[in-house]
Amino acid sequence: MKGKWFSIAVLMVVGATLMSQPSCARSQQLVAITLQPSGGFVFEGYNAAGQFTAYGSFIHPPETKDISDKVVWTLDIANFGTITQTGLVTYTRTDGCGSGLVNATYNNPPGNPSGSVILGSAPVSGWKNANCQ
Questions:
Q1: The model's pTM
Q2: Which residue among 52, 74, 90, 119 has the highest number of C-beta atoms inside a 10 angstrom radius?
Q3: β-bridge pairing 41-43 and 116-126
Q4: Inter-CA distances, 2 with 10, 15, 16, 56, 115, Å
């Protein structure tokens, strides 16, 4: 009889411990990336620069935080400029042309290319983009 009550007490302690864990004892999961500034940048000359920040929206528990140092930064337009792995874009064209997207990519879970990929994007363009061909 004592063994039965001991087993019940152990189960209650384990259950209470699991229930008290934040986020149901699961790790946070990234579900979306938002870039700031969300409207992007219009670059007004050679070597003009703009800094993007990547904000991740997580569940378990819900939270939004800066993940700029955890994403891979890319530009989807050739010969537009450079982007660092901290999200700094430098415009290197002299004609004011070009437009495209800055992308921040995160593999969920990190380092697992077969996991889900979360992508956030924002536009970039040169100052004379409407006059370009």
A1: 0.75
A2: 52
A3: parallel
A4: 12, 20, 21, 51, 48
Residues 37 and 99 sit within 8 Å (Cβ to Cβ): no
pLDDT by residue (tens digit) across 23-59? 454 678 899 999 999 999 999 999 999 999 999 999 9
Q: What pLDDT is recorded for position 107?
A: 86
3-state secondary structure of 116: strand
**Contact present, 33 and 107 (Cβ < 8 Å):** no
Residue type, 19: M
Number of H helices, E strands in the chain: 1, 10
Closest CA to 36 of 57, 58, 60: 57
Multiple choice CATH, 25-131, 3.40.50.620, 2.60.40.1270, 3.90.1150.10, 2.60.40.10: 2.60.40.10
